[in-house]
Design a protein that fits this description.
Protein name: Proline--tRNA ligase
GO molecular function, one term: ATP binding
EC number: 6.1.1.15
Helix content: 25-40%
Pfam family, one: ProRS-C_1
Number of helices: 13
Keywords: Aminoacyl-tRNA synthetase, ATP-binding, Cytoplasm, Ligase, Nucleotide-binding, Protein biosynthesis
């Protein structure tokens, strides 16, 4: 890792390429504990951009932020036995306070349903208290010891988890779908990553949910990545945690609930989907630095004039864009070009002695490397349009990849041939036995059962289909893939 720049090709050694990019671009470093990472300032600034965008949408839709402790008593986790059982293999336990053994084990939060809902049972008394719509920006800890990948699968991760309480099933259903649509907007309009929306299968749903809605993306190595989920919990938690309210007729009712979350794996997805052999490529809408200005001068004669123009351009841009002036004198312009390309800055501005004399600036796009010389008077408009074009071009490129690597299979042989290369759409009878057999034999599982484009609340299928595995009449069309 001591060599400068990325030393492997993305399409040849994808796993090694990914590790080199996240480390060498200064996003993160490894922690001294296996499965944990340190998010460095540059990586954290990308998370802050995503957080800022998501937080604004959450608040616009009536959600409020709050804080929860990290430790959860084992007795609380056991209240919803099925849910707890699903997380048991991943739980870190605290057993001592100093030298004293605790009377009850405490779990380091794998997810917050049980803790939040014990508290919600005290907050909800009447229909007037509903809906309760709370979000937590925090970390979760899950013991991912065997298979880890920075930002994609780690033992502690930054995320947000929303938890809501409603008076009716219909309100909970609307909430679950609303949050999925907000996530989809963030992923496609800001991260420039197309996703497929739909349901998880019964086997793959969140433990304790009535059903799970998911957004799935395809990575360049043909593997799927779950980008975000939204769960309709029904009354599966309100009953064991006694979350009840008096309705308008003074009758006691159990509440209906949802939970939903996204994590810093979104940053990992951006690296994978958009990066190239030079390093990161960040979509302008989430880039902490959208524009870097690099002065080019030779000796002291041109230095003052070039730096003066660079500072003037910086002053003109800084109120409209996230811009950085790299005026470090200990590095050559060539070194700076490579450094900022590795970090994925969407647009580079080069200013040299000739540009000063001609009243121009050279603009270089990170996504395709195209270079254009622009007059000072049109600089603002050209930059605005160019950043938007970069954003849309990245999405279009990712969408083309998704479409080109989404296959349909009507036979199991076709299925097996395609599954190494991306999503495979296939009919499925609904049997968990077929689902498990396919997983065992091909490594692929059901990533998403897509919504019908004509009726977003229904699963898309055709009656005449036959299950890809057993040949029986199918009830669903599903997207299968190997996944992270």
């Amino acid at each position: 890792m001591s060599e400068l720049g990325v030393t492997v090709k993305k399409d040849i050694e994808f796993g090694e390429w990914y590790i080199q990019v996240v480390l060498k671009s200064n996003l993160l470093d490894y922690a001294p504990i296996k499965g944990f990472i340190v998010l460095k300032p540059y990586g954290y600034s990308i998370w802050e951009r995503i957080k800022e965008i998501a937080d604004k949408r959450f608040k616009e839709t009536g959600h409020q932020n709050a804080f929860l402790p990290t430790l959860i008593p084992e007795s609380l986790l056991s209240k919803e036995a099925e849910h707890f059982e699903g997380f048991k293999p991943e739980v870190f336990w605290v057993t001592h306070a100093g030298n004293d053994e605790l009377g009850e084990r405490l779990a380091l939060r794998p997810t917050s349903e049980t803790l939040a809902y014990e508290i919600f049972s005290r907050w909800v008394r009447s229909y007037r208290d509903l809906p309760l719509k709370i979000n937590f920006w925090n970390t979760a800890l899950r013991a991912e010891i065997k298979s880890t990948k920075p930002l994609i699968r780690t033992s502690e991760f930054l995320w947000q988890e929303g938890h809501t309480v409603h008076a009716s099933r219909e309100e909970a259903e609307q909430e679950a779908m609303l949050m999925l649509s907000i996530y989809k907007e963030i992923m496609e309009e800001y991260l420039a990553i197309p996703v497929i929306a739909g349901y998880k299968s019964e086997k793959e749903k969140f433990v304790g949910a009535d059903y799970t809605l998911t957004l799935e993306a395809l990575m360049p190595d043909g593997r799927a990545l779950q980008m975000g989920t939204s769960h309709n919990l029904g009354q599966n938690f309100s009953k064991p945690f006694n979350i009840k309210f008096l309705d308008k007729d003074d009758r006691e009712q159990y509440a209906w609930q949802t939970s939903w979350g996204i994590s810093w794996r979104l940053i990992g997805a951006v690296v994978m989907v958009h990066g190239d052999d030079k390093g990161l490529i960040l979509p302008p809408r989430i880039a902490p630095i959208q524009i870097v200005i690099i002065p080019i001068f030779y000796g002291d004669e041109s230095k003052d004039a070039v730096l003066a123009k660079c500072r003037s351009v910086y002053a003109m841009l800084k109120d409209r864009f996230r811009v950085h002036l790299d005026d470090r004198e200990e590095y050559t312009p060539g070194y700076k070009f490579n450094d900022w390309e590795l970090k994925g800055i969407p647009l580079r501005l080069e200013i040299g002695p000739r540009d000063v004399k001609q009243g121009k600036v050279v603009l270089v796009r990170r996504d395709d490397g195209k270079k254009v010389s622009v007059g000072d008077e049109e600089l603002l408009d050209v930059i605005t349009n160019m950043l938007e074009d970069v954003q849309h071009s990245l999405y279009a490129r990712a969408l083309k990849f998704l479409n080109d690597h989404t296959f349909s299979a009507l036979s199991y042989d076709e299925f097996r041939n395609h599954v190494e290369h991306g999503f495979v759409k296939a009919y499925w009878c609904g049997s968990q036995e077929c689902e498990l057999r396919i997983k065992e034999e091909t490594g692929a599982d059901i990533r998403v059962i897509p919504f019908n484009s004509h009726d977003e609340g229904e699963v898309s299928y055709k009656q005449e289909g036959r299950c890809i595995y057993c040949g029986k009449s199918a009830v669903k069309m599903a997207y299968f893939a190997r996944a992270y």
